[in-house]
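USER:
Make up one protein:

ASSISTANT:
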Amino acid sequence: MSHASIAPQDKSPLHAVLSWLLRNHIWVFLALTVAVFSLASPYFMTVNNLGNILTQAAFIGILAIGMTMVMIDGEIDLSVGAILALASALAIGLQDHMGTWPAIFVGLLSGAALGCLNGTLVALSGMHSFIVTLGALIGIRGLVFVYTGENALMVPDFAYTEIPEIYLGPVSLTAMIFLGLALLFQWVLSSTRHGRETYAVGDNIEAAHDAGIDVKRHKIINFTLCGTLAAVCGILLSMRLGTAEPNAGKIWELWTIIAVVLGGTRLQGGFGSMWMTIGGVLTLAVLRNGLRLLNTPNYVELMVMGAVLVLALVLDKVLNHKEDS
């Protein structure tokens, strides 16, 4: 009798709709923000502006892909903005000494090495990644200032800035790289052993260890991926701007974390999706673009972003409660 009374409630259309909305909250939020800014500004829904939004989203998006992998593990990486700045500086600063592509390779290698170092320190020391990567953020940013002499580095050959100037309609190469990487890592999460292990480690680290997963090695790999993607972002940014600023990527780690949490990845790990992260990244990009089109003062933009972060944390709490119950 109890089974008969519960079954209809579980299958009711309202329950199904609410469940779907909770699981896909970010796409609903994105649709609402697009609708609001479409009504507020006649320039928002133009093809050029939508292309700009995708390109602007790509930089935080590439960082967010790596951050999603790390956060599903139950960790966090605060050093991505500083790694971005170092890779950007090396990719431009070394061109006079070794040529464009070797300099780009060294920039990528720096991100992979620093990500690996972060992961190794987290795995072997037992310290929380918040502390380890906060220290890395400060140290790497200091290294960037030393390397650049506290000045912006200018690209020696402006052919370097033409590399990302490839478009498929309104979609830039930078946006295509972001979407391609997002698809690749969604596949990694959903269809590979490493992806399954990522969820297992974040959900219950002791159970993952008992199941035979090399947790330390696994975390080092994800931190290395995160650092490498931060370097990719830095190099693409240096190509777009033609300069490497020592302050490049400053507080971008915060925008990245907001985007990932807004997309539903849990701060304590074990739950997340690259699709939802894309939604969080696009929502953030739409908000920032729309507010700038409306000539909103910078402090208002910061207040809105702060409110979005609080909303993301509330959603995280609500979704946690739903799953637990």
Summary: The beta strands are 153-154, 167-168, 171-172, 243-244. The longest helix spans residues 215-241. The chain is about 75% helix and 0% strand.
